[in-house]
Amino acid sequence: MTNHESGGVGVKSRLKIPAGLSEPDLLRMFEWMLLARSVDERMWLLNRSGQAPFMISCQGHEAAQIGAAFALQPGKDVLVPYYRDLGMVLYFGMTPGELICSLLGKTPDPSSQGRQMPGHYAGKRYGILTTSSPVASQVLHAVGVGLAAKLKHEDIVAWTACGEGGTSQGDFHEAMNFAAIHKLPVIFFVENNGYAISVPVSEQMAVVNVSDRAAGYGMAGVTVDGLDPLATYAATKEAVERARAGEGPTLIEAKVHRLTAHSSDDDDRTYRTIEEIQRERSEDPVISFRNLLVENGIMSEETEAEIRKRVKAQVNEATEFAEQAPLPDPSELLDNVYAS
Amino acid sequence: MANKLLIDAIRDTLISEMRADERHIIMGEDVGQRGGVFRVTAGMVDEFGPDRVINTPLAESSIIGVAIGASMHGLLPIAEIQFLDFIHPAMNQIMSEAAKIRYRSAGDFNCPIVIRTPYGGGVHGALYHSQSIEAIFAREPGLKVVAPIMPDDAAGMLRSALEDPDPVLYLEHKKGYRAIRGEVPENGYRVPLGKAKVVKEGSDATIISYGMMLIESLAAAEALEQRDGSSIEVIDLRTLYPLDNETILESACKTGKVLIVHEANKTGGLGGEVAAIIAEEAFPYLDAPIMRVCGPDAPAIAFSRPLEDAFLPTRETIGATLDKLAAY
Amino acid sequence: MSTTERGTTVRLPKLGESVTEGTIGAWLKKVGEEIEKYEPLVEITTDKVSAEVPAPVSGVVARLIAEEGETLPVGAELCVIDDGSGTEDHVEQPAAAPEAKAETPAATAPSNGHAHNGTAPSTGRDRPTGEAGAMEMLRTRSSPAVRRIAEEHGVDIQQVTGTGTGGRVTKQDILAYIDSRPEVAAEPISTQPQAAQTATPAAPSRMPAQPVVPPPAAPAPIPAQPPAAGRAQVFPGDQIVPVSAVRKQIAENVAYSERVAPHVTLWMEVDMTGVVAARSLAKDRFQQEEGFSLTYLPFVVKAAIQALRQHPRVNAVWDGDQIIQRKAINVGIAVGMDDALIVPVIKDADGRSIAGLARAIRDLTSRARDHQLSVDDLQGGTFTVNNPGTYGTVLSTPIIVQPQSAILSTEAVVKRPVVVDDTIAIRPMMNLSMSIDHRILDGLAAASFLADVKAWLEAVDSSLSLY
What is the pTM of this model? Predict the structure, then answer.
């Protein structure tokens, strides 16, 4: 246990920093989480003002994602994300400007130059694989990456994610099976927010913890508090070490909250109570982590103000950039069907 | 040059390409020690090891899905689906993923996999070991579908498919494996994808076909020529998607009479697409309606001999329609 | 957004795919308050989502327009923000939500299925039905390849012998025909009437007064006239008569008939004494009872019918590699009109008496003149009787109505001196002119036929019943 000098403010909760992280890391973690949240909020605004027809959110998942991201190596490890992984892809190099371009269908969008719906994050230069809309099909691709990495003797990890609903898909099970048989360096990151659109987890599975399934395939599985970035960091670090040691895949289930409706086309008031939504909002991981850092004297008022100012400027700049960016030309409609 | 069975032409090409490029891996059910249920990959695990000739679990979606992922991380996987009849669980991976990867990423990613699978009837395989459902795939932009039947084409097109940066569905006629023999050039022989072949020139009528029906069509053509001296041109499509419109139209304009033959169900089969292309682009040159001889619209080929025989077109049934066409 | 006064007017945006209106919730800013771009301005609820509309510009809230609780359509004015812009200024319009375009497909017509104009393609004639109809179609409708070659080489397809199904002309047939043709009409027809320059030395022997009219786009075959040497010159005072569709059709029909059927015409004299007497006896009562006058024509038609029974080869049509001797005797009666000669048909004429024939002739003639004939009235004839004699002709060379094998014309009844029993007598004489298709009939058959007609007419006496 480590005591922190807090500069006069009483310590409300003891903070245990996991091995591999320092205090500056925690500040950076917070800034990434805040950036993810702010970009997300700006996208909602653009959707509500009629500029973006569709928006799907990461709010409530930031801590789980940024915590996990800090245990990975952008530029080496490969991401095969799903549509709520805005935090992950930001950390791995997609810029806020590129993300908003993707939202608006503008050509600087590295995922697809405006061809895919928002939420289909990709970019070869960032190590983020292209994905589709059928749920969990990408999980098999992560296994393929793991297979290739193993055969090529690369010291990398393939990280893939889906919601708890995705774990009902046959592809998810086939993927775990294959990865476990061949001890592939794959991390299956399940962001369990309790809802697959409107279907609650009790109607999605008979187990309480998705991670129970891992044992069924002969691989490691663990459930963590996805609202605590340090917890997901620790679990991911362990999974990375297991993978790099050739001991196979890990299923990490991060329990999180979904603080918005499923997407801009959903109204969750039709299936969730106000009390439930408010209760989850009171556990907003960005706010809790901020409080934790402030209470433990790691983030001062000035530092926080600086961070917020920096984030706000980035988001505004990104919005301007994306609003000015060009739309694709119809003459390009048949480009890239085949190689040439 | 060597005289080979179709199956040997395929195997020899696989072996030579696996040797030439270590990025190739083979994955599928029973491809390892068993050498595949048709023995196409016989002996290969001994040479290349279980890391490169991988027995997969019995799960088609993962065979293709893992291959796709690996192809996006530097490998050139050759995925085998044991029978085309069993490809359905992998449809999502083929159609939603493989075919669309280049387009949806605007060229940032590509998916250079080859999916090999035996198809076709006439081996008493009944409903689930005889299907010819290539038409489902032969309309998917981003995917290529090939069905060579002559051993030299099989070898040359397999090589081209393995080098193709986009996904290719490579269909092997299971009856043809050990029934078709031909001369195969050695050493790096390539046949381009997307090109049909005029296997026999003629001037009075054209038969367009592929697979084992090509063999039957050639026989029907020769029979008619013997009888009355007609001159019948026969085209092997070889690539089913994208179609070689140029070769098709050149022949249609030359002869003015076209018969399309395939063992797949008539409705929704490739014959309709070929006929539409000809009607659209060669109309002023047509001297007769475009005709088709195809498998009937039954859900599949049945087991019992008379039912199987009744399903598949033969040189006689093809000949009957060819006669009508020639006399029109 | 738009600028209508100082400041920027904020309008209700489209908040979702199928959203057309929204209800104003709470205003989050008051008049006079400062607001930043993107800051929430007002709450809106729709049936799909509840949302906050962000300020599109930074400035001061100048005027609230929409009221809390009001339901407004997308695009309605909400408020004005004074952002320092004048009436000329424009704030960058938000990019139109892409799905706004996707909203309107409901307006487009369903693209499934067939054209909406339900009329089946029709040439204006009855479609031939049944097997005979299909064969007819095969024979008269050529394939695209054959038509193209015909047009390119100026070939009349009807001239070509067909060896294909149903006797149709195949590509090989027409190519062989072209190969075997003399070099003369080698120039392809230009579709322009002014195809002057390529006039061949072997121009038609007729005066090239009329240029060849390009054929109408109808099932009729393309006439294979070598191009005339340009159009005729028109001099002052000349009157141009446009050619009507009917005249064109008649022109084609007669030209075609002359071309395909080698015509041979025979004439026979008939002593009409008995007929004249019989008619004379009956005409008053006939006029009274029937309301129209009795002519000689029904007698001739009756005679012809009797002869047709005995000479079925005269009641036949040419069908390429076969001659079809028709069972039905459908007699066409040529009717002269202003600018046309049409031939309505008495169906099953052999079931009618002379009076019946007279009635039928009268009916067809008057309906013809009133343009009341149906398509069916004009089809199915197996033999035609023409009646130029009413105009005074004594001999003519009628043209066969295709695809029949012969045509009979009755000439004028003229009193002439003839030799009867070695003495001179004055008798009403009428010539019968008969043209035959020499492919089907020869002179002997025709003469026998005419002889029977003559015999029947010359045997008429007062005992003949009209009914």
Answer: 0.68
